[in-house]
Amino acid sequence: MAQHPLALAINGRESQLRDRLVEFSEPAGGNGHAAPPESVAIVGLGYVGLPTACALGGNWSSIVGIDSSPRRLEAIRRGEVDLPEADREWMATALASGELRLCDDGSALSEMDVVILCVPTPVDEDHQPDLRALREACRTVVAAAGSGQTIILASTTFVGTTRQLLVEPLRQRGLVAGTDIHVAFSPERIDPGNPDHRHRDTPRVVGGATHRCSSRAARVIGGMTDSVYLVSSPEAAELTKLYENIFRAVTLSLANEFADVCGEFELDPIEVTVAAGTKPYGFLGGFPGPGVGGHCIPCDPHYLLWQLDPRNRPTPLIEQAMRSIDQRPQRVVDRVAEMLTESGTDPRRARVLLVGVSYKAGVSDLRESPALPIIAGLRQLGVDVAYHDPLVPHVRLRDGRELSSRSDFSAADWDLAVVHTVHPGVDYEWVRACPRVLDTTYQFDAAPHRQIV
Q1: Do 202 and 328 sit in the same domain of this protein?
Q2: What is the pLDDT of residues 304-327, one digit of tens each?
Q3: Can you give the residue range of the structural domain that contains 362?
Q4: What per-residue confidence (pLDDT) applies to 11?
Q5: Would residue 265 count as lying in a domain?
Q6: What percent of the chain stands above pLDDT 70?
Q7: Same structural domain for residues 145 and 48?
Q8: What is the largest CA-CA distance in the chain?
């Protein structure tokens, strides 16, 4: 197993806590284990499930990918998905050879040695957990489960999900975890669009319903990464994942707030953050932006807040961080209005172009993208809004209106350009010709006359 430093801001004494980690290692000769599993089903083929299937490729005789969306399955068959090139090549070869099969129902689940659930766990407009996909997937898996299977839940969710939706329903069917079947939670750790964070190099955590469940699940997860760490229970693993993403939410909220502080002193927040980052202990910084998007950071903390609310357990820091994240896109809208007014342009007659709309560079994912509330806020001001994003051909707004990415324009046609997402390998030199540029990334150097939020 590979050794990884603990990412803890505790004054350089991380090594003193390494003995608290239980690192999984395969017993010599495989004693106490059944024959290696040969078939695996991935339930949910989104931004977690599909990379998981690719990471398992080559180690299994049969991989079945299950997704309820015919559109998603067709996109996978056509190769129109966000994946590194090596994964695209494996996927195309595996589909052609039959190593990877796709289906839209759970008919093959009962035949599988291993089932991994990777379904989305979003929140609704009121920030309440939307558990429909998770509950339905768990019901389907439980109904098809057979003796000897290993079932691993990877979706980020509330504490107790694994026992409530898998272990207990299986017990009611006569399948006891640790004896008849093996159940564990191992949260995904996938960083879409970042080639530096590969499956193989990213440690994973596993918490099984029993020690035997943990070992069985760890053998599966160990096929994707060089480091697997065991925790005492599924609940410990579930809360570990929530803590990871809540920490990120708090850090990003602070980074945005500190960027505004830097603005008061006419200082560059990137310079200040990088300088602070030279301290080798006690600091774990983040960078500011237009808001926080994706399927994790804007959503996952609300699973804990939702669970704690009926217990009357206050979490003021987390609650304030999430409010700050929600409010960040409006700060961008207000800044656009300020810049237009300062230039003598009435926002009601202004034309504004968003440069990039996906939530993150290098991906086409629009989930929770700050661009969506920014567009909505600008339209409420009467601004004529358009966008340019080579990875996102169309955007459907909450009011049902659909926008298409613009490419047939002159940069000078716009009163202001909002730099929201800068994709790698894309030429943005044309932004120089825009008369006014608001850089919400704080790092867009292609337009020397840019202003920041």
Answers
A1: no
A2: 999 999 999 999 999 999 999 999
A3: 317-452
A4: 59
A5: no
A6: 95
A7: yes
A8: 77
